[in-house]
Amino acid sequence: MKKGLFYSLAKKVETSEKQFSFSRSCLTVRNSEVYAHWIGTYSNLSVLEINLDGEKEKNISVVSSPEAEAVSGAGCFIPDAENRKLKFVLPRFHLGVPAQIDMEIAVYQLAQTKIIKEAILEAKSENSGIIYFAREGHLTQMQKAIYLTTKENLPTTMVGISHKPAENEYTRTAYFSSEPNLEGFGKDLQTLFLCDPVASGMQHVAMIEKLEEMGRLPKKVVVIAPMATKFGLEVIEKLCREKEVEFVAGVAGVLLDTQPPLRYYSPYPRNQNQAADPELHTLMNGIFGENLGKACIRCNWTGTFWGGPKMPMEESDAELTDVGLSNRALLDICERLTEKEAIKMGVLEKLLPCSTKLLIRG
Question: Organism's domain of life (predicted)?
Fold first, then answer.
């Protein structure tokens, strides 16, 4: 089997000393009628725009909203039915359907940011499309987000791509369970949206290489990754530059860190400049201190959305033991931020996502 470009590109990123450039802004968006009943007619978003090469023109959009923070950021308040109150939890404890609801809305909000909206406005059904990676890609509901934004119905497919063990420095390689089916996609692709979380970037690199092999390499790749690491996006961008493909990305909450040597475990960032809302980063730093960058944002990412309430908790405890933590210890720390304290600090509304509002209203 031919060795892909991921490994050589990743080594370049490992040794890179480039500093990224960034800018911040606030954005008020009018919500689609699909969501307005639950989250209001307008949403106020904090937007972080980044260029990983330090250049002036930004090509990564990171959005902060209650929904984005619930999925991959500071966390959120959820109903505590037993004690009839709200309790604060990290994204790793925000599970199942409520997390899926918030991801869908966070991606819709991403679609309204300048960088991502420009890509959406360019995309037409005859020359653009969407690829969801199994098993989490379709949870972004990007096809729906685009339709609600422009009424354009882009051809969409799902590709079975995953990791399997391999003898290399990252202990894994990407593989396809079947050949990608691009039925309904135009022959000359202008813009292609690749939807899935990003840790190392390995699967996205494999997908782009596969598209080139199929003779379907697009002019622009838009990575929609509610959970994404700085490292992984750098790797993908390097490949795109090598293939002369324009690169754009949209992320929820924060640009995650990822730990060497495997570049798989992806915690909340220590660098405030990787967070769309610096106030929430300061809050997290105050609550968690040195533990801030130790816990992976969601541990088993698929499990937190698909695995029910038990599986992700059990699997992640073993992982946390390796960094001197446990789920119980993290939950105890979460209890320090009460609803009353959040109101006093003026951050409750920033941490009250749609899924919680739905459950409160019954």
Answer: Bacteria
- Name the amino acid, one letter, at 104: E
First to last CA, the chain: 53
- Is residue 176 one of the residues assigned to a domain? no
Could you tell me where the beta strands, DSSP code E, fall in 231-327? Answer: 246-252
In tens, the pLDDT along 202-232 reads 999 999 999 999 999 999 999 999 999 999 9
User: CA-CA distance, 123 to 84, in Å (whole number)?
Assistant: 46
Pick the closest to residue 260 from 230, 238, 292 (CA basis): 230
110 contact partners, CB below 8 Å, separation of at least 6: 61, 63, 68, 116, 145, 224, 226, 250, 251, 252
Structural domain that includes position 295: 6-122+221-361
Torsion, CA 79, CA 85, CA 89, CA 91, rounded to 10: 20
All residues at 6 or more sequence positions from 168 whose CB lies less than 8 Å from its CB, including other chains: 7
DSSP 269: P
User: Each residue of 170-193: pLDDT tens digit?
Assistant: 999 999 999 999 999 999 999 999
- Nearest-10 crossing angle of helices 327-334, 278-288: 120
Please report whether residue 342 resides in a domain.
yes
Q: Tell me how many domains the chain contains.
A: 1
Question: Letter for the amino acid at 78?
Answer: I
Query: Residue 15 belongs to what H/E stretch?
Result: helix 6-15
| Domain presence at residue 203 | no
Residue 87: in which H helix or E strand, if any?
Answer: strand 85-89
Number of helices followed by number of strands (H, E) in the chain: 14, 12
Q: Which two tokens stand for residue 25?
A: 């802004």
Residue in the block written with tokens 């119980």: 328
Cis peptide, bond prior to residue 135, ω within 30 of zero: yes
DSSP at 157: E
